[in-house]
Structures are given as structure tokens and as C-alpha cells.
Amino acid sequence: MREARTKILVSFNEQLDITTKTGPNDLVTNIDREVEAFYRDKIKKYYPASGIVGEESVNENTKPAVDGLLWIIDPIDGTMNFVKQRDHFASMIAVYQKDKGLRGYIYDIMQDKLYWGGADIGVYCNNEKMAPPRNKGLEGGLFGVGAPLLIKNYHNLQNVAMRSCGTRIYGCSGLQFIHVLNGQCVAYSSYLRPWDYAAGKVLAETLGLVVKTIDGKPIDMLSSSDVLVATKNAQKDITRIVQSIY
Amino acid sequence: MREARTKILVSFNEQLDITTKTGPNDLVTNIDREVEAFYRDKIKKYYPASGIVGEESVNENTKPAVDGLLWIIDPIDGTMNFVKQRDHFASMIAVYQKDKGLRGYIYDIMQDKLYWGGADIGVYCNNEKMAPPRNKGLEGGLFGVGAPLLIKNYHNLQNVAMRSCGTRIYGCSGLQFIHVLNGQCVAYSSYLRPWDYAAGKVLAETLGLVVKTIDGKPIDMLSSSDVLVATKNAQKDITRIVQSIY
Q: Binding residues for Mg(2+), per the UniProt record (chains A, B) (predicted)?
């Protein structure tokens, strides 16, 4: 991932090749594709029997994985920020064995901070072991959210936002997960695809945080959902507000 | 301001004394007060005839200013982030002569980047002169906004957000102004008090950006308004969407 970081930083001196995917605000660049190909090559070299799911490629090697491992890759999470801000994006890798997350890696490229770990070893920021964040309720912290969910008031999330200490939207699920991991926010909710939350889920659950659908159900890995990561207390508070509309 | 930065960083090792002002999410800490007092003392020493308006004190010296200068201070802009995140806050000073802004200073404390300047000298980030950002329209960039305006859809701002490349909420007007200054966002709108926008207005106008009320009127300095800072093109796009509801 440090090699990938160098590729990304070097790309700032070159013209990006930017194309759209599902809509005008769903971007992919040549760097997303190059970094994903780089990760795939490395994984195939060292773990040839693994399955791989990535954001930017045809997922030809998804299953069945002979070694039982599935690698879930987001080469650049927050591509819009990468293009428009040259900051505030992440690179993410997760390793799963069936539904069980073994390792998660979220790399804040511009801050050069790699958040990584798993249930058996704990969570680290670079070489420093992270302590679990305090178990604050919704009213004790900041609430990260995806803009469309907030604007459309899906799941009563405007009410959730108004009861928190404040709303934060960074446009990068990796960075928003990091904010919950280190206690800068008590919760984050957004419509996420598997590569948006796979790494964050491993790290968050290792630190005692809850990662479920916004209405409190277990997440079906490899599907897209309105995901909520939160402290135990904030998750209870939010679920109560969300369920009050049904 | 670099001395103030040191005071703020040292405070991370001490217990903060936090109290609320107008509501549970309107915080002030002993560090806000100490930094404001520090700025006031320095200003009184070197500019004893100046008026001073600050966020955290009784404004006993506001007018009339014998030397015609008014200093507008926000010791810590984004106090909630300062308390909850230990990151993503700014310290700001502006110098005005009547309605004319002479100097603006926005200090991103954690990144150690001071944005400063005025019409006669240009705008600098630390020692590096900044070029004006590209004059992109709303659909060409990210839109920063205050959460309450977005949630309540004041001025049709949900529509503005949906037509941009994406919505960003950082909870610190100084940092959101910086994002427009350096082209990371094409616009930012929020309900702001004079100390929230005084420094940003000087810097933004120097770089050819527009700073007006959200409905396109000149800003009455020393009053609170729904302020919009934007590129010329984004300001036109946004005003059109805002006015379409009247």
C-alpha cells in the first residue's frame, strides 16, 4: 500500500484520465484502475488461490476461492475528492474468510496514516496500537453521514443529525470510518458498497464498535446497504430514532 | 498567531474547561477565552486606538476606533471540532477600516498553514503566493454548506447541493473558506456571524471570488447573515437556484 501511495502522489504531476460510471458524480480515473491492477497483481502473486473483488474491474476471480480467502479492494475511496481536492481520500483493502473479516486496511494517503488490524491482533495507526473509543451516545458526539441520505431524510436521518453534536460530510467513507474508529465522530451512516465498508467493518468491530444496517440488521457481505457504524450507545440511540418512523 | 498555536497545542495535554453558550452545541472553552485575551492584549499594545470585536468577550472597545481600524477575532473557529476531534479548527483575525477589509488571516492550526493577505499584497499560504482558483460553475465542483441550512432546505439549498459534484460539511467556516480559496470547493454557504467570515471575505475577494448574502446582496458587516462565498460562475448558478423559489 505504501508503493500504491507513491504511485498516487506521483500522479499529481500528470494529467488524470477521468471518466464517469453510473452518473456525472460517479468518477473513475486511470489511477484508480492502475492501483487496483497493482493490488490484484500482488495478491495473485502471493495468494494465487484467493478470490478478489474490486471496485474498478471485472470481478473474474470472485469465487470459489480455493484458499477460502476473499480480498476486497477499493484502490481510491473518495475519487471525487481525489480529483477535485487532491486530498481527503483513502485506499482500502480487506481480507475475508466467508463472512468473517480477518484483516482491514484503510490508508489515509495524504496524512500518510495507515489504519490496519484484525480481531486477533487489535487495530493500529501506523505502528501505534489504538484504544477503543469511548462509548458515547448520539448526543455526546458528531455524526458523519452521506449527503443523499441526509438531504432525502431517508430513515429519519435529519432527526438523527439534529440530535447529535453536529453533522460532518467528508465524501470519503474510509475517512469517515477512521473518524469513528478514533472517536472523532460517534457514528457514520451512508449507502455503501462492499468495498466502501469491508475494511472499516473489520477495524470497527475489533474496537468494539457496531457495524450493522441502519435499521439494526446484520450486514450481508457482498451486497450494498445503508450501513451504520457507531459506538454501542450511539447505535442504540440512532436505531430508536430510525425505527420511530415505521 | 504562531504563539497562539503553541498555546492551543499545549492545551491538548490539559483538561479543557468547556461551557455552553446559546445551546448545547454552542461551546466555549477556556482556550477560546485565553487565545482571544492574548490577541486583544497584543492588539491593544501595538494598536491602542483600534476597535476590537471578538467572539468570546464583551466587546467594550468596538467603536469609535480613533485610528479607524476594527479588528475582528475568532480565537478558535470550530470549537466543537476542537473539543471532539482535536482537529479541523482554525484561528482567525481580520482588520477592517470601516467596511473595507485590509487584512485577513485564517490559520489551519493542525496543518500549520496560515492563509493571509489583502487586496494590496495578494493572498499567501504561509510564504507561498496563491493563484486565484479556476472560475468553475456549480456543476464543476464541490459545495460546502452549514448543516442546518441543508437539513431545513433554507433558500432551496438542497437543490443547490444536488446539482453540485457533492456536498461537504466540515463544521468550521474558516476551513470551508480555505477550501473555496484553493479551489477544493466552488462554493460555501452557511449562517455566519461577523467573526466567522470577516477574514475569509478579505482573502476571497482578493482572489476574485464573490462574497455576498445567499440571495446576492452585499454583506452588512457586523451583522449575521446567510453568507455565500463562491467563484463568480458558481455564485450565478446558485443565485439562480435560490431565487427560483421566490
A: 55, 74, 76-77, 196
Q: Going residue by residue through chain A, which has 246 residues, state the pLDDT in tens, using 9 for 90 and above.
A: 999 999 999 999 998 999 998 888 888 999 999 999 999 999 999 999 999 998 777 555 555 577 889 999 999 999 999 999 999 999 999 999 988 999 999 999 999 999 999 999 999 999 999 999 999 999 999 999 999 999 999 999 999 999 999 999 999 999 999 999 999 999 999 999 999 999 999 999 999 999 999 999 999 887 899 999 999 999 999 999 999 876
Domain map of chain A by residue range? 2-129, 138-243
Q: Mutating which of B20, B79, B85, B89 best tests the A interface, going by the most A Cβ atoms within 10 A? A: B85
- Beta-carbon contacts of A197 under 8 Å, excluding residues fewer than 6 positions away, are A173, A177, A211, A219, A227, A229
Q: What is the count of residue pairs from A and B with beta carbons less than 8 Å apart?
A: 71
* Residue B47: how many other CB atoms lie within 10 Å: 16
Rounded (5°) CA angle B143-B149-B151: 95
Topology given in CATH for the domain delimited by B138-243? D-Maltodextrin-Binding Protein; domain 2 (3.40.190)
Q: Specify the CATH class of A2-129 in words.
A: alpha beta
Chain A hits for B84, CB-CB cut-off 8 Å, are 141-142, 165, 184-185
3-state helix, strand and coil shares in percent for chain B, rounded to the nearest 5: 35, 30, 35
ipTM of the complex: 0.94
Give the orientation angle of helix A194-206 with respect to helix A173-181, to 10 degrees.
10
